[in-house]
Amino acid sequence: MIEAYFPIFVLFIFALITPVVMLLIPKIVAKREPTPIKDAAYECGIPAEGDARERFPIKFYLIAILFLLFDLEAVFLYPWAYIYKKLGLFGLIEMGVFITILLVGYIYVIKKGALKWQ
Amino acid sequence: MDLIDIGITVGKVVIIFGALMGMVAYMTLFERRVIAFIQGRIGPNRVGFQGLLQPIADAVKLLFKEDVTPAGANKFLFAIAPMLSFIPTLLTIAVIPVAESSTIFGREVDWIISDINIGILFVLAVTAMEVYGIIIGGWASNSKYPLLGALRASAQMISYEVSLGLALVGLLMVTGTFSMTEIVAQQSSFLQWNIFKQPLGFLLFIIGAFAEVNRIPFDLPEAEAELVGGYNTEFSSMKFAMYFMGEYAAMISISAIMVTLYFGGWQGPILPSPIWFLLKVGAFLFTFVWVRGTLPRFRYDQLMRFGWLVLLPLALFNIFITGVIMVL
């Protein structure tokens, strides 16, 4: 089975070399004349102020955590879906219970306003 | 595995990879021309016949542009971030069958780079990595607009990835296999196409696909009007081009995935199979451009609300309905 991944490895080599070569060509042929103004961070033409890496809304963390939750759910669903034809009604009820428990958490998240962007 | 096998493998990779790179180059021209016609303009038609040499002219111009690295940037991450977003999009095509098998040097050659038994999982795993290139690029620039764009992009991509993944669960229940070749084989006639078995699943998948490749109406990461250009503001020269090539390559590979999973892959009457595959992929690429010419952009809170409060319950509902129908 492992040799099935050899062609993917070959493709990876191609996919790696192409961008590396493409990024190296400008290093050789393009001229570089750095000036302090040119190297400053772009802020619509006025001098850049402060550092960019400051605080940002906590919503983004929340989204990331919710993503982990629901992606894990998807991970559980994949093997289940794979053998669903054999499981039949039993599988449907089992997964129904699992999803219901998850939906309770989902409704809690909505009620708490975690998905409101205001 | 002997030399001829390795030769065939390398040959297949060269052909499919070359075709993809060619399509990426000409997709830029195709998009500009189609958008121009939608807006009642002519579009680039001066370089070569009907502008056919325009992509080459663009590439040469970008190669000779000065490569500026901002003073406060993290030099190493700034250099590798465009590659990180480009490489995964190219890897996706490894598991897509592009034509029916033919005989070369007395050997049966399947026109798929690798028919691994976990094709769908490979696609999901590799497309999920595209977000790294964007968030690392935005953070490494140490500039405000790119950072904002990168945060938006990553939040959006992971939100829609959930519904994208869940939409595929319904398909998986119907097909019962992860292998792309088997999924194509199951859709041997028009009425057996998976779109008829999973209409809601396909709708969810195509919406998720638009969000995954950051296209209008989900192009908030690069909203020109509010973020200057989003995560790629500080990138210049070939690095800038690479982000765009990554976007186009992602568009092509996700179209190819939709064709394979829902529209019978390379199968079709009369015409040879690669032509059918290209026609179907081309139809989706046209849809991508068409939608860009037609729809306005979402607002960010609308985008998030739509992803979490509409798409996610619908995806779960789709799984439930599919399950009930299959038991009955």
What does this structure look like?
The complex is a heterodimer of chains A (118) and B (328). Chain A has helices at 6-29, 36-39, 59-82, 84-87, 89-111. Chain A is mainly alpha-helical and 118 residues long. Chain A has one domain: Methane Monooxygenase Hydroxylase, Chain G, domain 1 (Up-down Bundle), CATH 1.20.58. Chain A is flat. The model of chain A has no long low-confidence stretch (mean pLDDT 84). Chain B is mainly alpha-helical and 328 residues long. Chain B has one domain (3-327). Chain B contains 13 helices and two strands. Chain B has helices at 3-38, 54-63, 75-91, 119-128, 130-140, 144-175, 180-186, 194-197, 199-212, 224-227, 237-262, 273-294, 300-327; strands at residues 99-104, 107-111. Chain B has a two-stranded antiparallel ribbon. In chain B, β1 and β2 form a beta hairpin. The radius of gyration of chain B is 20 Å and the shape is globular. Chains A and B meet through α1, α2, α3 and α5 of A and α1, α3, α6, α11 and α13 of B.
